[in-house]
Design goal:
By secondary structure, this protein is α+β, with helices and mostly antiparallel strands. Helix content is 54%, strand content 14%.
Length: 488
């Protein structure tokens, strides 16, 4: 092993000397600086490979004698060295070492060199996993693999990148539970929980994909979607306003300069997992999202002294989760979903983009913000009869009336504004876009539930600013599982 170590060091010296000669030649021939940069980077990768090989050689071959005390039974050294593949950012290495098992040909019980080097469970180095998965969080797996090949000359398969993603995400739930809450002095007085759903295009069942006919059956959609429920918890300072303040801000479409910003925002997304048996009733995506919200709130508000606000749209299932998992929170119907209904109603009576439509919406929005929900509902009912609406226009107005009536308990906007509560779920809308849509709804993408959930877990960790901490957590947990017992 000493000879191999010295040979690798000598090779690195030779490569460094070649780099110096490269610089001299580039100067004489007046290369462009970008040409020199590319050549130097490629040469540095070769030097890194040689030095990493020297480090591995210096660590030995894992020979700890003929036998080791195993878990209740001694294990014996292999007759020959076993080679193990290790794909680093500098390229591929084959690490030859002795391993230990109870009998020749049986399961390897110990690999001392693997423990000494803290090798990962798979072939890919932790650095390579880090770099490649950062790319996979933003681009498709194929694009990420292509980018890695361009940068490092390495090209793992797309399937390897997908499996790596799912393996890396396995400890996301445990990591989330292990995180300490923000320091109390850094938290604002209000805690807000908000949730919304976003469809994820799913891969068609196997029997549909194997069907010979290129035409879809009657009523069959080109692709099916499953809801990913995105939830977020954050703290914020109270922001007291009047109805006129809100109307003015919405009409100007300009954020108030003194509006407080969310603090310590945590987001995540959950899909409903597939059933493993016909008797099993898995936790639904929306329920999983709210369970995580309840845990986060308990973590950050253990003495229940902070006021908690829950901002949702009109989906009945989300309000049921609110009553079940965060019943102490003040439920508020998102104002922007209300505004969408008002505009739809306005266009049933006035031309689109007309001043009359603007006046219609502004008047009723102000009434809602002043707590006059009953007046708005009654006025819309009168308009339906007065204008004798029929067909689609009648359906739209009646749907809005039902929406306001069903959610009336969560539309006390005059009280919310006076207390300084937020009334718009922009955080949830933004999280749905950044966390789900920007990555999982690209052209042609289709997902399985495990694949989509793994990516959502990791994207949430990344967007929460916890990527480096999670990678360290993953490495620590994997190393403990691989070598903890032997090390002890």
């Amino acid at each position: 092993m000493i000879v191999a170590h010295e040979r690798a060091i000598l090779k690195a010296h030779t490569q460094l000397a070649a780099m110096v000669k490269l610089l001299e030649r580039a100067g004489r021939d007046q290369w462009r600086i970008d040409e020199v940069e590319r050549e130097l980077f490629a040469a540095l990768l070769q030097v890194g490979h040689s030095l990493l090989s020297a480090f591995v050689a210096a660590a030995g071959d894992g020979d700890q004698g003929e036998t080791l005390p195993g878990d209740g039974h001694p294990v014996h050294r292999s007759a020959h060295k076993h080679a193990r593949r290790y794909l680093s950012i500098f390229g591929e290495l084959w690490i030859k070492r002795y391993v230990y098992s109870r009998r020749a040909g049986q399961k390897v019980e110990a690999a001392p060199l693997d423990e000494r080097l803290a090798l990962p469970a798979g072939d890919f180095s932790y650095v390579l996993v880090d770099w490649l998965q950062r790319m996979c969080l933003k681009d498709s797996f194929a694009e990420a693999v292509g980018s890695l090949e361009t940068l490092l000359g390495l090209k793992p398969s797309v399937r390897s990148a997908e499996h790596m993603n799912q393996h890396l995400a396995e400890q996301a739930g445990a990591f989330r539970l292990s995180q300490p809450p923000p320091a109390p002095r850094d938290e604002a007085p209000l805690l807000v929980v908000t949730a919304d759903g976003k469809g994820v295009p799913m891969r068609r069942p196997l029997e549909q994909r194997l069907r010979r006919s290129p035409r879809r059956a009657k009523g069959e959609k080109a692709n099916q979607k499953q809801m990913a429920y995105v939830a977020a918890v954050y703290s914020i300072e109270p922001f007291r306003r009047t109805a006129d303040d809100v109307v003015d801000e919405i009409l100007r479409r300009q954020r108030a300069s003194d509006r407080p910003l969310p603090q310590h925002k945590r987001v995540w997304a959950e899909l409903t997992p597939p059933r493993e048996s016909s008797e099993e009733q898995p936790c639904t995506g929306k329920e999983c999202a709210f369970i995580q919200a309840a845990l986060e709130l308990a973590h950050r508000n253990p003495d229940k002294r902070k006021r908690v606000v829950c901002l949702l749209d009109g989906e009945a299932g989300l309000w049921e989760m609110h009553r079940q998992w965060v019943p102490r929170a003040v439920g508020i119907l998102d104002l922007f979903h209300v505004l969408e209904r008002l505009w739809a109603v306005a266009y049933c009576f006035h031309p689109e983009q007309s001043p009359d439509a603007q006046t219609f919406v502004t008047r009723r929005l102000r009434m809602l913000l002043e707590g006059k929900v009953g007046y708005v509902i009654g006025g819309l009912k009168q308009l339906v009869g007065k204008h004798e609406l029929r067909g689609e226009r009648r359906r739209v107005v009646q749907a809005a009336i039902r929406y306001f009536h069903n959610n009336r308990a969560h539309m006390r906007y005059d009280e919310y504004l006076a207390a300084g509560y937020p009334i718009g779920s922009g955080v949830a809308e933004g999280a749905c876009r950044h966390l789900v849509k920007d990555r999982l709804e690209r052209t042609g993408m289709r997902w399985t539930v495990p694949g989509a959930q793994a990516l959502l877990h990791l994207r949430a960790i990344y967007l929460n600013g916890d990527w480096d901490d999670y990678l360290a957590y993953h490495i620590q947990r994997e190393q403990a599982a691989l070598y903890g017992q032997l090390a002890a």
